[in-house]
Specification:
Chain lengths: ~250, ~325, ~270, ~270
């Protein structure tokens, strides 16, 4: 199976933007080295875990892969035209002033040329996707404000999949939810992965959730990939102290 | 400190661009400056001679830099109408307008601070609602109409001051100040209403924040929490408002000068506009803009002291 | 409309006052008890009474008719000013806020320059160059109001552009223009609505100020500001001449500011 | 009996700001001994934070109906007057909150905020004594270079450091009870571990009894001797933490424990 994503020697520097004055005067030393020589690859249809705490650079990595972070050294090859992303905060991931039906039809509405769909085709696809993510079609009339955190994440996942993507980045999709809801969303992601064969880069700080979701896992700290490998291998004999600390924190004996 | 330097640079750039814009605006005026000075019946030769003498035929940039150099040295050129240096016309008048703006500003600070805090402390009670109603009305009154009302009530009816009895500060400083009281009240009242409303809202908003709950959890009483925690944070948006109102007060005093017929900078500005006496108009406008920008600069510095979160990045 | 009682009290009072004002303005366009410019020597400085409910000015013109016309002028000028300010301000604010970068820097510097001029001062410059009259006043105030709207809209767009749902829209292939006008703009409407109201009030006060200074609406056209400047000379003998135009300005501004507060609270 | 520090009898809290009164805590009773660490666990909206606020005397009274009694070292504090409560707050009862980002005053220096309880409850101390106590307290919460941190502002510190500063400012008067209302929720996993270890150290060294409130069961299990499980404002189950985990009695407790992601693959459907 060939790779869907290859990242090779990726380095990203952040300059304190400020205004033009700030850019000119900021010497090389001022620049923050956010990602240091990150290299890894992902097979098609794989779920790869990325574990790291806030400020470790995982969001920058996601942005680079999605093409939202233009300046970087190194090479990123992604075999997917329209990668999608699901975010952590269910309250910010849906447009508060639009109905769920409108939000879900938007990715279909912007399709050009051959893929253009009629109104009925669009609404049929939306209903079908809603069923797939376990939501009742009636929810289309509601606004995001009226939904629970779990329902919102399901809508966000549905919106991402409606773009017919094969590559999804899930950035801490369950950490903002109650424990009982988390398990449901994880099961949903696994089911969708099995049915639609999409590859998922699963970002989380919780090793237990990563264990349930992923085949392989990468540990990242301060922009450096400390370890990567099969989940059981890494959990059984961690190579670095930081991984051991993470394991202890998640009280995995 | 780096923050102050950066702000200073942007301030100078803005000042320079304003002087350029104003000079440029007055240079492309449809009317010909020489014509305005000599009137329509003068002969073309004399017009050309005047243009030559005033150097109007030289390239624009050269004239601008020369004008700017003179301006900085305090020589604002010669008035078309009165043929006397603009500097002399303005030098005695500008202090009057600036003084009026400063007194009004002081009134605003002295009155709105305690009143804003008082209404925040009693928010919801009847006294608070009453003050808020008065506030709402005060904000809707144009300051020149306020001036007219004050003139009528305190001048004509109660005769506390004689309308039009302005005394220049050269002759009698204290009567000069006492005459300015009512005009300054007229300028300040709408601004007082605005800052009371903002301070009250800001105090109530800050009082709902987490760090106030922490303050109470340490055993502070309501008064202690207000003065030691809430007020310091609530003042930050108010300082920004005050910075902006200073500029409005300057312009406000120009209008109020007509109501209380005070011979300040406003009077000259208006007459020179109607006579199209451009050197005077240019000088007055650039001066006022300069005063406004310098005050904005000071507000930015005070703002940075009040809110330590403002780093070099600026707002 | 929700039940009337559900709206906050200041919104309701504001709506009533504004309603009356708008009614008077509309009436003023079509009908005035007397011809606002007709002079009647017998009624010079007549006190308010049955024939002239607001009395007459020093030329014997009916104050009530002139007030109606004046309110109409002031309202139209303020409306036009706000329209210019909002439309241009929104476009400038949206693009600088959304794209940032050098465009943002340049426009913000221009904004600071225009912002340094209080609106009346800028209008003074404008009028001294292009002459007085309604249209120049509208243009002058309109331009002077662009920076404040631009700043507010820019602040909102900076806040929304990094929101997750905007990122998702971008990933789904939605064009930047569509994101700006369809995805972000609707969410900024409530913030913009209250600043439009405040902007309208400032425009009314600025127009009245300029007409008072004689550089706004030119006679014989009626404006509340110019009426006030004429009324000042007869303050002792005919205070009504000054009171009524002043009162109308206050009520217009009061009505709108109460509406603005009501909207903010809802 | 004398080692009973805190006792709550039949506590009820009802909100009256919406149209229908909403009962947030109903019939809650519990006891906390000196030096003990008690965990209160429940999902959002279970009333656990409300209970903590009631004990700390931070409930706004006007739009609430509160009944029941809370005894702190024998004196009733639930219905006590403001001035009486103020004597305890910050001196005998310390509290740390969930959001380190917003729970510190942004425009005041760290040192000033840590010393605040001293200024209120120990007026007789001089400036130097207060400074020394503050530095010593910052050290006790394992903050290195306390002198530097003393002069800094909250926005210059990380979330973890701010939570330590919060703990220092709550512990400075050596309170007998420290309430920790979800102190780790907003922090990274590794830092959560450090905060929990810190609380354990403070409990050992100063015999401060701790009321630890959280929705994270595995964290509570690591720190607390006894656990109270709350659901919809009610105490569903109470007992020794090991006992609760090994064989929970109530259905809700079972569901909570079951929901903790465990180390085995979830079946796909």
């Amino acid at each position: 199976m060939e790779n869907i994503l290859e990242v090779d020697g990726l380095n990203v520097y952040y300059t304190n933007k400020g205004n033009i004055l700030g850019k000119i005067t900021s010497r090389r030393a001022d620049r923050q080295h956010v990602l240091k020589d990150v290299s890894f690859s992902m097979k098609k249809g794989e779920i790869l875990g990325l574990v790291g705490e806030s400020g470790c650079g995982k969001t920058t990595l996601a942005k680079a892969i999605l093409g939202m972070q233009k300046q970087f050294d190194g090479r990123i090859r992604l075999r997917c035209r329209n990668p999608q992303m699901v975010f952590q905060d269910p309250y910010a991931s849906l447009n508060p002033s639009k109905r769920i039906g409108w939000i879900l039809e938007e990715p279909l509405r912007v399709k050009k040329g051959s893929e253009r769909l009629s109104r009925e085709a669009r609404s049929r696809r939306v209903d079908e996707m809603l069923a797939r993510v376990g939501l009742d079609a009636k929810i289309k009339e509601h606004y995001p404000g009226e939904l629970s955190g779990g329902q919102r994440q399901r809508v966000a996942i549905a919106a991402a999949l409606l773009c017919d993507t094969e590559f999804l980045i899930a950035d801490e999709p369950v950490s903002a939810l109650d424990v009982t809801i988390q398990a449901q969303i994880i099961r949903l992601l696994l089911k969708l992965h099995a049915q639609m064969g999409i590859s998922i880069l699963f970002i989380s700080h919780d090793l237990r959730v990563v264990y349930q979701m992923c085949d392989r896992v990468m540990i990242m700290k301060d922009g450096v990939l400390l370890e990567q490998g099969e989940v059981d291998g890494v959990y059984r004999n961690p190579q670095t102290d930081y991984t051991r600390l993470l394991l202890e924190a998640a009280n995995i004996e | 400190m780096k923050y102050a330097a950066k702000k200073l640079v942007t301030m100078l750039i803005t000042l320079l661009s304003i002087s350029f814009l104003v000079y440029f605006a007055f240079d492309i005026i449809p009317g010909d400056a020489a014509l305005a000075a000599l009137g329509t019946d003068s002969t073309p030769e004399r017009l050309e001679a005047l243009r030559e003498q005033l150097g109007l035929n030289r390239p624009f940039l050269e004239r601008y830099f020369e004008w700017l150099a003179n301006f900085v040295r305090g020589d604002f050129g010669v008035s078309y109408k009165y043929k006397m240096p603009v500097a002399d016309m303005i030098s005695s008048k500008l202090p009057i307008t600036v003084m009026m703006a400063l007194i009004s500003f002081a009134m605003m600070v002295v009155v709105s601070l305690p009143l804003g805090v008082y209404t925040a402390m009693n928010s919801g009670r009847r006294i608070d609602r009453l003050i808020m109603v008065v506030n709402q009305i005060m904000m809707s009154v144009p300051h020149f109409f306020m001036g007219i009302v004050l003139t009528y009530i305190f001048g004509l009816v109660l005769k506390l001051f004689t309308p039009g009895g302005f005394v220049s500060y050269e002759t009698d400083f204290w009567r000069f100040i006492s005459y300015l009281i009512f005009p300054c009240i007229a300028i300040a009242l709408p601004k007082i209403a605005m800052s009371v409303k903002l301070l009250r809202g800001s105090c109530i908003e800050e009082a709902a924040k987490d760090y106030v709950r922490t303050a109470y959890s340490k055993g502070n009483d309501t008064r202690g929490v207000l003065y030691k925690h809430v007020l310091r944070n609530a003042m930050i948006p108010v300082i920004t408002l005050w910075g902006m109102t200073l500029a409005d007060m300057l312009v406000g005093s120009i209008v109020i000068e007509q109501v209380f017929n005070i011979p300040g900078i406003g009077r000259i500005l208006l007459t020179s506009i109607s006579y199209r006496d451009y050197p005077v108009v240019e000088a007055v406008i650039v001066l006022i803009a300069a005063v406004v920008i310098v005050t904005n600069f000071c507000v930015d510095i005070i703002y940075q002291i009040a809110d330590p979160r403002i780093s070099v990045g600026g707002r | 409309m929700k039940k009337w009682k559900a709206y906050p009290v200041n919104f309701r009072i504001g709506a009533v006052i504004t309603g009356i004002m708008l009614l008077l303005i509309v009436i003023g366009f079509f009908y005035t008890p007397y011809n606002p410019t007709a002079m009647d020597n017998s009624a010079k400085l007549a006190a308010p009474g049955l024939r002239h409910i607001m009395g007459c000015d020093n030329f014997g013109r009916d104050i009530f008719s002139r007030v109606l016309k004046g309110m109409g002028n002031t309202f139209l000028i303020a409306l036009a000013t706000v329209v210019i300010g909002v439309v241009c301000g929104t476009v400038v604010g949206a693009f600088t806020g959304y794209y940032g970068g050098w465009l943002d820097e340049v426009l913000m510097r221009v904004n600071d320059v225009v912002f340094a001029f209080p609106s009346i001062l800028l209008a003074l410059v404008f009028v001294s160059i292009f002459g007085t009259g309604k249209y120049n006043v509208v243009l002058a105030l309109g331009i002077a109001f662009i920076p404040s709207f631009a700043r507010i809209v820019r602040g909102e767009f900076i806040k929304y552009r990094d929101m997750d749902y905007v990122k998702s829209a971008r990933l789904a292939g939605v064009s930047n223009l569509r994101i700006i006008f369809v995805h972000i703009l609707p969410n900024t409407l409530t913030v913009m609505l209250s600043s439009v109201m405040i902007g309208f009030n400032n425009a009314v006060l600025a127009e009245a100020g300029m007409s008072y200074l004689g550089i706004g609406v030119q006679p014989p056209d009626a404006s509340l500001g110019s009426m006030l400047s004429e009324a000042q000379t007869y303050l002792f003998s005919a205070p009504n001449y000054a009171v009524f135009p002043g009162l109308m300005i206050i009520l217009m501004v009061l009505g709108f500011s109460l509406l603005a507060d009501g909207i903010k609270e809802r | 009996m004398e080692d009973l520090l805190l006792e709550i009898k039949d506590l009820n809290i009802e909100f009256h700001d919406h149209d229908a009164p909403e009962r947030v805590v109903s019939g809650l009773s519990m006891r906390l001994n000196r030096g003990e660490i008690l965990g209160i666990v429940g999902e959002s909206g279970s009333g656990k934070s409300m209970t903590a606020m009631a004990i700390a005397g931070l409930l706004r009274r006007h739009d609430m109906k509160i009944s029941g009694e809370i005894y702190f070292e024998g004196t009733e504090i639930l219905h006590a007057g403001r001035s009486e409560l103020r004597r305890l707050q910050g001196d005998d009862i310390g509290i740390i909150f969930q959001e380190p980002m917003t729970s510190l005053n942004p425009v005041k220096k760290i040192g000033w905020q840590v010393e605040e309880s001293l200024r209120i409850h120990r007026p007789q101390l001089s400036r130097e004594q207060r400074y020394a106590l503050a530095i010593e307290c910052l050290k006790s919460v394992e903050l290195d270079e306390p002198e530097v941190i003393y002069k800094k502002y909250p926005h210059e510190l990380s979330g973890g450091m701010r939570q330590r500063v919060m703990t220092a400012s709550a512990m400075i008067c050596d309170p007998r009870l420290l309430i920790a209302d979800e102190p780790t929720t907003a922090l990274d996993v590794t830092i959560q571990l450090q905060i929990v270890k810190l609380l354990q150290k403070l409990n050992r060294e100063k015999n401060t009894s701790i009321l630890f409130i959280s929705h994270d069961l595995s964290l509570v299990r690591k720190l607390c001797g006894r656990i109270l499980v709350m659901h919809d404002g009610r105490v569903v189950e109470e007992g020794d933490s090991h006992e609760i985990f090994t064989h929970p009695r109530q259905a809700y407790t079972k569901e909570l424990i079951g929901a903790i992601p465990r180390m085995e693959k979830l079946q796909q459907f």
